[in-house]
Write a structure and sequence with these properties.
EC 3.5.4.2; Ado/ade_deaminase; adenine deaminase activity; binds zinc ion; binds hypoxanthine; eight-stranded parallel sheet; zinc; TIM Barrel
Length: 330
Amino acid sequence: MHLPKAELHLHIEGTLEPELAFALAGRNGVTLPFADTEELRTAYLFDGLQTFLDLYYALMTVLRTEEDFEDLANAYLTRAAAQGVRHAEIFFDPQAHTARGVPIGTVVEGLGRALDRSEETHGISTQLIMCFLRDQSAGSALETLEAAKPYLHRISAVGLDSAEVGHPPSKFREVYEAAGALGLRKVAHAGEEGPPAYIHEALDVLGVERIDHGLRCMEDPDLVKRLVADRVPLTLCPLSNVRLRAIDILEEHPLRAMMDAGLLCTVNSDDPAYFGGYVGDTFHAVHEALGLDNEHLRTLARNSFEAAFLDHDEERRARYLAEVEAYAFD
Ligand code: HPA
Ligand SMILES: [Zn+2]
């Protein structure tokens, strides 16, 4: 679907398609524990976040050089452009690479090579969001922020991802304070598998401006009231929720109820190489499964630009919003 939109919840490592994974494995002399792309695809049956993460971390061992990260980002941007993405705020997981001996500079500079040319090549403006792995220690997150200091000109925000349950946002209070003091903006995954209390904590303790997922807010009516009143954006990922078994089938996704409740919902792809669709595919899927009409879809696109970190460039935001209003559905 070509409706102009911003993608605000996208893990660049989650865009690693099997074909590129095998190509990079060949280029870098890495042996994958799968014979071919077909055998790899059969591993894509997840029973929750952890089984997905195990494969996600295993596969990214093929990413080693700046060129690899550049190729990965270019492949994503090419697909995103074909699906109407005009602005992308892209997560990356530095600890997943530094733990394997790949320096953070290789990751950021490699991605940067693609992002620097993105507007010209793909017509997509971009930002980078550096995520801390919440199942690693708070000390490791602080070390990661320290290691990122030479590259902060390329990073606009910090985020929090990986295995959620048992790793509440409050564990990362100190590193979020430090990130805020460095002028970085703040988001966090919360309420994907974790309870609504984690969403409260992400807001109250970490001071985040957006909640990534936030699906489970619907269990807490007072929290919903708060998110509505404060217009806190939620970056929902419906196809991810189905594949990771947060909900059984897309037809049961609460997106429509969440929009009706007045929540500032956006729709995103999360890890599109693993979850069966890029963001335009996701818009199409919720249109079909939830009976969302064109005006619902336009609202989702409008919300994506409202929730984007474009405060330093309101002219650009206004231009994108005008594109949304002018879009003619076929
Ligand atoms: O959906 C996700 N949730 C948490 N961590 C992640 N890391 C990549 N994708 C995800
Ligand atoms: Zn995510």
